[in-house]
Structures are given as C-alpha cells and as structure tokens.
Amino acid sequence: MAFWDGLWPRRTPHFDTGSAATNSIELTKRRPAVSLDKQGAANGNLRVNLSWRMRTSDIGGRSKQNGLLRHPFKLFKPDVVQAHTQGMVNVDLDLGCLYELTDGSKGVVQPLGGFFGSLNSPPYVQLSGDDRFGAPSGETVFVNLDHRESIKRLLVFVYIYDRTPAFDRTHAKVTLYPSNGPRIEIELDERHPQARSCAVVSIENVKGDFVVRREVKFVYGFQAELDRLYGWGLQWGRGYKTSKV
Questions:
Q1: 34, 35, 208, 209 from 40: Cα distances, Å
Q2: The pTM is what?
Q3: ∠ CA 143-149-151, rounded to 5°
Q4: Which CATH number fits domain 24-56+90-234: 2.60.40.10, 1.10.10.10, 2.60.60.30, 3.30.2350.10?
Q5: In sequence order, which residues have a C-beta less than 8 Å from that of residue 194 and are 6 or more positions away?
Q6: For residue 98, which of 230, 238, 211, 215 has the smallest C-alpha distance?
Q7: What is the mean pLDDT of residues 90-96?
C-alpha cells in the first residue's frame, strides 16, 4: 500500500464480491466478448474497477532520457518516483456507467452531479466514490446481478471532465471481478491524445445470457457523445441530466 493511501479513508462499500479470482481473461480485438453465464458468474455483485498510472515515458520526460545518455550507470540505480507530481495530479480519470433497465428506465451513474446510484434498488448499479488522485484502489462500480432480470444493458465508460485530455499520458485498465471465476481485463492502451471520453465495456442481457463485450471507443466529447454513439436517448447538461419525454 502506498503511503498516501492512508491519508484518506477508503470509501469502498462493504459489498460481498465473492472470492478473489486467481486468473484472468483479457478482452482484445481478437477476443472481444465473454459470457458471464458460461463462466458461472452471472450472480452476486460484479465489481468493475478503474485503475491507471502515468506512462513511464512521462515520468521525468526527456530530461531523464538525456541524463541516462550522459550518465549510463544511473540505469542501475532505482528510480525515486514522487507520489503526486504535477503531471499525475492533472490526470483525473472518472468512471461512469450508462444503464438501461428492462422496464425502460435509463440513466447514468457517475461522480459528476453526484449520481452514485443504488445497489439494492434500481438501477442496481452503484459507484463507490470519486478517486481524484489515481490511487492503486482506483474507482469502482458495483453491479448487483442478483437483479439481473431487471437489467437490459450497461455501458461502462471513462472520461476526463475538467482537465487537459491526457489519455495518451496514462496507462488505464478496467477490470471486472465477478462473484465467481476469473477476472476480466480491458486495457486502454491506444493513444488518443485529444479524446475526453472512452466507452470501455458493455454488459448486455442477450436472451437471458449476460455478455461482456470490449468496446474501447474513444470520443472527443463527453457523455452526450457516448449517448449518441450507443443510442441511449438521454438529455444532457453540464453537471446534470434528465431523460427525454
């Protein structure tokens, strides 16, 4: 655990997420989807975690590379990485989730606007908190799959709200931890320096089978652009949202 983790209390709810997975499935362009039902993991609480770190090339920048050329033996000395460099503080990734329930209701769970959702009542999706420091714990969304019959589709996304676009300076990963079976990983390793949002993974009820599908689609706008891309049909405003009539 890093030193600065102890400076703030953890806000992760005490949800039962099952035993820790010992192996993983990485969703890629070649293998974009996996069935939770076939994994025996379509019940209990699904934990969706966002974590990120600065890309190595951005810690120290060109001055570090030049220093190694001048003093090659420094390569064998361990690096001292500051916990909160200016670059790290400026990278603030937020995790969100668009939801559509089988009764037709739609909405969003996200830090912006304080839409943290609810786990045991509609939408059965809840955000644990807003991590602004890129701590190892990251941000987490919980999905209550014990109410799977009420969930039609979900879209997990990541966005940079009020800071300079920096997807090209971060290495981000979204990991799904089912109540049973291997964890599911999606890497955001594509370089899109001007993008502000990314649709990462969708979870859809396909004839009773819950399918997790890699999306990884970067857009240059915010949630409204993701909405249009996936046909959610919400009305958006800065800091709030309402459903269309």
A1: 11, 9, 13, 11
A2: 0.75
A3: 45
A4: 2.60.60.30
A5: 165, 220
A6: 230
A7: 80
